[in-house]
Amino acid sequence: MDNKVLYVESSKHTYPIIVEPESLSSLYSKIEEHSDSKASRFFIITDDTVAPLYLDIAVSSFPIKDKVDTYVIPTGEASKSLSMYEKVMTAALENKLDRKSLIIALGGGVVGDLAGFIAATYMRGIPFVQVPTTLLAHDSSVGGKVGINHPLGKNMIGAFHPPSLVIYDPKALMSLPEKEWRSGFAEVIKHGFIADESFLTWLQDKIVSFQNISMDVLTELLIRSIKVKVAVVEQDEEEKGIRAYLNFGHTLGHAIEGEAGYGQLTHGEAVAIGMEFAVRFSEKYYGHQLEADKYFNYMKDLGYSLDIPSDMDINQLIHRIKLDKKSHSSKIHFVLLQKIGSPKLVEVNENLLKAELTGKGGV
Ligand SMILES: NC(=O)c1ccc[n+]([C@@H]2O[C@H](COP(=O)([O-])OP(=O)(O)OC[C@H]3O[C@@H](n4cnc5c(N)ncnc54)[C@H](O)[C@@H]3O)[C@@H](O)[C@H]2O)c1
Ligand SMILES: O=C(O)C(=O)C[C@@H](O)[C@H](O)[C@H](O)COP(=O)(O)O
Ligand SMILES: [Zn+2]
């Protein structure tokens, strides 16, 4: 795989995504090369799992340490909150960041979404760099969706604020626990479902467990999956239309995440359940089979549980689905698949949805 730098053309600027082993240790020089090394200050936001692993490596790459401030949030989805937003904002102000400062998100999607939203709103917007350290963050670090959760809904408070650079060191993923590989891999599979069935068969062939994935395979996987995302966000940056396809599996997935309590299920675990449901619902909606069982069996072999948790109240899930950002005028919208690789955003009838969710959908 030779092309390890991808470029995203956003309406604000074009930014590179560098996928390169060991790039974390040359963070500053990458910023110098591709972003703003002349920034007045650098504010690295990370979490308390990533900090002991990678914060020193990142900070060591900076020649002038006095210009670097750090802020460590508690690990986990619960940190994507208004209260954490206020704390980090306060730290940014106390550290005297100005409009020429650069925020650096070092971590997974939680850090990236929160830090990106701080960047989007600090003094009405300053630049930021994404330094993803999870598999899932191949998705979250690209495309500029940043934000935090509200108890009533996932990512309900946010902005579109593209990063100025994404530096992805696949070696950093080697410390991920299996659960987080599984979580991130759900978004990889999502990209296959919505855009490219041959990617799914390639994954089946190359990834039979989350142990011992070679750096070459991992790099190719990241690049292929990121390319799917880039192709969508370049056409529809602010989700006026086809960007909603990236929400495949998320309508139910987000409802499940919220209902379980943020952080009880990983994002990818919830999205995996949502994808299986969306495929089943697509088959009912379009009246033909998608032949997707082989992919769901593959996911089960990789340890995914694809059933809606049995303790979940279907009416509560529907209530949450109605608050989803794709809903409007009380109409529920779902991303369904006409066939694998051909998503559509469709309005769905609440009663049909309820019947399917309760397993009484019929054919
Ligand atoms: N903005 C977007 O487009 C977008 C896309 C997909 C998901 N998301 C959001 O991303 C979030 C999920 O991201 P995530 O799965 O990366 O969660 P996360 O940031 O919570 O990371 C998962 C866990 O892995 C730990 N971790 C991170 N890097 C590690 C490493 N290298 N080694 C060991 N442990 C490490 C973290 O501390 C955390 O415990 C959700 O909030 C989701 O809504 C956003
Ligand atoms: O980038 C997008 O667009 C996505 O939908 C990617 C999703 O994987 C991601 O979880 C995103 O945060 C969901 O966005 P939301 O608008 O449904 O909150
Ligand atoms: Zn997602």
UniProtKB/TrEMBL annotation:
Q: Which reaction does it catalyse?
A: 7-phospho-2-dehydro-3-deoxy-D-arabino-heptonate = 3-dehydroquinate + phosphate
Transmembrane residue ranges: 102-123
Sequence positions that bind Zn(2+): 187, 250, 267
Q: Which top class of enzyme applies to this chain?
A: lyase
Signal sequence bounds: none
The 3-dehydroquinate synthase N-terminal domain is annotated at: 71-182
Instruction: Give the EC number.
Output: 4.2.3.4
Positions contributing to NAD(+) binding: 109-113, 133-134, 145, 154
Q: In which pathway does it act?
A: Metabolic intermediate biosynthesis; chorismate biosynthesis; chorismate from D-erythrose 4-phosphate and phosphoenolpyruvate: step 2/7
Instruction: Give a yes or no for keyword Transmembrane in this entry.
Output: yes
Comment on bound cofactor:
Binds 1 divalent metal cation per subunit. Can use either Co(2+) or Zn(2+).
In UniProt terms, what function does this protein have?
Catalyzes the conversion of 3-deoxy-D-arabino-heptulosonate 7-phosphate (DAHP) to dehydroquinate (DHQ).
Q: What is this protein called?
A: 3-dehydroquinate synthase
Provide the species name.
Evansella alkalicola
